[in-house]
Amino acid sequence: MSVELVRSLIRDVPDFPSPGILFKDITPLLADPKGFASAVDLMSEQIRPYDPHGLIAIESRGFIFCAALATSMGLPMHLIRKPGKLPHSKAGLDYDLEYGSDRLEIHLDAVKPGGRYAVVDDVLATGGTAAAAASLVEQQQGEVSCCAFLMELSFLDGRSKLVNRPAESLVIY
Ligand code: AMP
After folding, report:
1. Per-residue pLDDT averaged across 141-157, rounded?
2. Fewer Cβ neighbours under 10 Å: the N or C end of the chain?
3. Atom of ligand 1 nearest to the CA of 58
C-alpha cells in the first residue's frame, strides 16, 4: 500500500478535453486492483480521524472513490449530482465557473441537520466544485468535517476556495 504506487497509475493526458489542459486520467489506477485498493485504503486513513457520519460523493468520478470508501469504512454515501439527475425532492446550489455558471443538487433526505460529512472527489483543481458541494451540505444544516481528494493540483490553490474546511489529498502535484 503506497502513495507512490497510486501516483504511478495516474496518467497525464495533455490537451484534453481542450488545449492547454493536462488531464489526470485515473483509468490506469482503476484497472489495477492493488493500486485501486491502496488508493481507497490510504484515503480512508486520511478521512477516519475526522470521524464523519457520512460521505458525500461529487459526480462523476467522485462516485467511484466514494463508493469504495463507503463500503470499506461502513459509512452512508450520498450523491451530489449535476442538475436534473436526482429523482426525488432536492435542493440545489448555483456556483460560478471561470466562464458561466453551473449547478449541483442533493436529495433533501441526504443530509441530517448537525451531521458531519466528508465530501469526496477525485481531483481538487480550482476548488469551485468542492466548495459548492460543501456549501450545499452546509445549506442543509450539515457540517463538512473534511473534503477528501485522490489528488490535488496544488498550483491552482483550490484549498483557498474551501476556506476553513480541512482538505486531505493523497497525491499532490
Ligand atoms: P475544480 O472545480 O476546478 O476544482 O475541478 C474539479 C472537478 O473537475 C473534479 O470533479 C475533477 O474531476 C475535474 N478536473 C478538474 N481538473 C482536472 C484535471 N486536470 N484532470 C482531471 N479532472 C479534472
Report:
1. 98
2. N
3. 10
Which three three-digit cell numbers place residue 166?
A: 480541512
pLDDT digits (tens, 9 = 90+) for 47-58: 999 999 999 999
The predicted-structure confidence for 87-97, as pLDDT tens digits, reads as follows: 999 999 999 98
* Cα–Cα distance for residue pair 105/109, rounded to 1 Å: 12
Tell whether ligand 1 has an atom less than 6 A from the beta carbon of residue 121. yes
Question: Three-state DSSP class for 150?
Answer: strand
Q: Ligand 1: which atom is nearest the Cα of residue 158?
A: 4
CA dihedral 79, 82, 88, 92 (to 10 degrees): 100
Q: In the structure grid, which three cell numbers stand for residue 85, read together?
A: 439527475
Question: What gap in Å lies between CA 118 and CA 121, rounded to an integer?
Answer: 10
Residue 59 buriedness (CB in 10 A; 0-12 / 13-18 / 19+):
middle
